[in-house]
Amino acid sequence: MPPFLKINKLSAERILLFILSFVFLFIMHIFLPNIGGVIAKQVEYVIWFCSGAVVFIAGLKVIGSKTIKDSPLKIYILLFIALWIGSIVFNPIRNLDYFLISSAWLSGGFVLWFALIQYELTVRQKLFILFLIFLSALIESMIGIIQFFGLYRYIPVSPSPEAGMVGGVFQQKNLFASWIATGLIISLYLISTAWLRSFSKAKKILFFSGVFVLSLSLIIAESRTGLLGVAVAMTLIFISRWKNYRAIKKTVFVLIMIFIAGFSTGFLLLSIQDQLSIEKLALKKIKWFSDPEQISYRERILMYETSFEMFREKPITGQGFSNFGSLYMYYQAKVKKLHPQYYKGTGNQYTHHPHNELSLIVAESGGMGIAGLLILLYGVLRFCKKIGLTRAVAYTGLLTPFSIHMMLEYPLHLSVAHWFAFLLIGAIATSHFLKKTELRIKKILQVISVATVSVLFLLFSVFIVKIFIAYNQLVIWYIDYSEGKQAYIENLIPAKENIYLRNWAMPMYMFYSAENALKDIDKNKEFLLDFLEWAEAEKKRIPIPQVFQYDAFVLFNLGKHFDRFEYLSEAAKSTEEGLKLYPDNQELKNLRRVILVEAFKRILNNFKKNNLKQQA
Question: How far apart are CA 331 and CA 309, in angstroms?
Fold first, then answer.
């Protein structure tokens, strides 16, 4: 155990290191069922709790020492956040639940970053934190290898349905790859430090073995995001640490050879899996990486073009912070209509993020968001000038795998672990030139402050526990429902009433309740009419295809039951609305066909009745 971790006396810094060790070496790698990409899995709630504990301890440290540390970057970050969120002043909030979640994600990130810079970490402690992330990437890498060979059938570490699919506990290959890429870049940075050179020979062998495993895992992950992140980050790290590497040429050579060996082994495993020769696999991968006509590339171009369309309509204030998901599918339909052939087969799934953080900010906040970004960039450049170009490039390299991932996806929203690690590395990078301010507070005010901070942390902990319990009940309900078992609505209600989960749970509750209500229409007519009102509002809040399907289905059944042609007409209109956004949705197409057949029968029967009346 490193000397600085030996507990001679308890300190905030030692507690922080224990919390981080707990998160990165254990919590992050526990697999539990997850029912959707944007709903955090259970272990992530523990990371939230640990984040709250980090903030709580930092608060006690500030109060106890009567000293607070401030960063020159704070004002620039706050202005950026204010301008992005402030765009909502000029736009209606279309989805209050998601607005609160997005606001918490953004402001919570600032609070955690500010709390982290309050800790007085030594250089060795900072390196140890980076080493923890390296070890976490190694653990995740081994889980990915187990998954690749299909051994998860015997060791339940991953939900992947078949061998050769790598996602680890992140359940998504790009999240897996960017995490592995970060571990690789940290290893490249660590070998240039005196701390790693002080390792014993046995520890160095284990370290380099870990590098081999990471490089192998990056290849079998088959992620363009991960490969691009490693390539750019390696370039930056080599540029920034060149003087250090010149003194350890042999070590650098060994590391590069291990990189190449790991890449080659990963490539060999892929060739065996695909049953292709190395030459044919290489040609296949070159095309996979560079072909701009691939669906995944065209889908991202569609997202970017749609984001620009949203910006073009409201260039000053944008569409409003957190409103992207409510409006995206409507604007996407316009873009696809203008380029039907190029975008054929793309954009059929609802999304609340354009897979690019810059596009999101520009679409939601327009000129205000751009101004915020420029202010933040100015602050960062000023800070880089202070700390020196070499150090600034090195920190940029450490953050590059995440940064590139953020330009091609949304890892900080999909994974709390990525959000946590990004802020942690960011806090290490910005922990220079901090200004200490003495707080002149009396003892009674200290006591009140400690009590206040403790109560806030207690409330936060209760909130996390309630989410954890509600989410587990939601998982139970969802598994029972999807497997055709009896799903008890009692398991769904806590999530429906939870401020974080209800954004996803409320639609599930309404759809499920509508299915049951249609079994006895006369008894549940009032609820079904309320459902139609809810569905109409939901089309503007979260326009997922199921909203249009269930809206049309309920109208269709009401039309048949009460023999009301206007209900059938509204049902057909609802399917048409849905098909404008989701033109390839087969369920909506089938439902429209059934509704039109029923409407035609009604028209034909009415025509026959009118003829009989005229003849009589």
Answer: 7
pLDDT at position 4, please?
37
Pick from 220, 219, 213, 204: nearest CA to 258:
213
Token pair in block for residue 172: 């998504």
Q: Which of 81, 78, 84, 98 is nearest to 366 (CA)?
A: 84
SS3 (DSSP) at 37? coil
pTM for the complete prediction? 0.91
Q: Which string of b and e fits 468-501 if b means at least 16 CB within 10 Å?
A: bebbbbbbebbeebeeeeebeeebbbbbbebebb
**How far, in Å, CA of 206 to CA of 212, rounded?**
10
Scanning the structure block, which residue is given the tokens 């922990």?
A: 431
Q: Using alpha carbons, list the distances in angstroms from residue 16 to 5, 20, 55.
A: 11, 6, 10
Q: What SS3 class is residue 436?
A: strand
Longest dimension (CA), the chain: 107
Interatomic CA distance for residues 578 and 585, integer angstroms = 9
| Alpha carbon distance 302, 548 (integer Å) | 23
Distance, in Å, from the CA atom of 295 to the CA atom of 302, rounded to the nearest integer, reads 10
Q: What burial letters (b/e) apply to 585-594, b meaning 16+ CB within 10 Å? A: bebbeebbee
| Residue 379 identity (one-letter amino acid) | G
Q: What is the mean pLDDT of the chain?
A: 89
Which range (156-160, 205-209, 318-322, 367-371) has the least confidence?
Answer: 156-160
pLDDT for 415-473, tens place per residue? Answer: 999 999 999 999 999 999 999 999 888 899 999 999 999 999 999 999 999 999 999 99
Residues 329, 95: Cα–Cα separation, whole Å: 15
Map tokens 């960039």 to a residue. 377
Handedness of CA 310, 316, 319, 321 (dihedral sign): positive
Q: Which of 142-151, 160-169, 234-243 has the lowest mean pLDDT?
A: 160-169
What distance in Å separates the CA atoms of residue 268 and residue 261, rounded to the nearest whole number? 10
In three-state secondary structure terms, 67 is strand
Q: What is the pLDDT of residues 345-356, one digit of tens each?
A: 887 788 889 999
The SS3 assignment for 425 reads helix
- The span from the CA of 478 to the CA of 508, in Å, is 9
CB atoms within 10 A of CB 126: 18
Q: What is the DSSP letter of 40?
A: P
User: Burial letters for 338-377: b for 16+ Cβ neighbours within 10 Å, e otherwise?
Assistant: eeeeebeebbeebbbbbbbbebbbbbbbbbbbbebbebbe
Q: Tell me the CA distances in angstroms from 101 to 95, 190, 403, 473, one per residue in order.
A: 10, 36, 22, 20
> Which uninterrupted H or E stretch holds 437?
strand 435-438
* pLDDT at 157 (0 to 100): 53
Angle at Cα 557 formed by Cα 556 and Cα 563, nearest 5°?
90
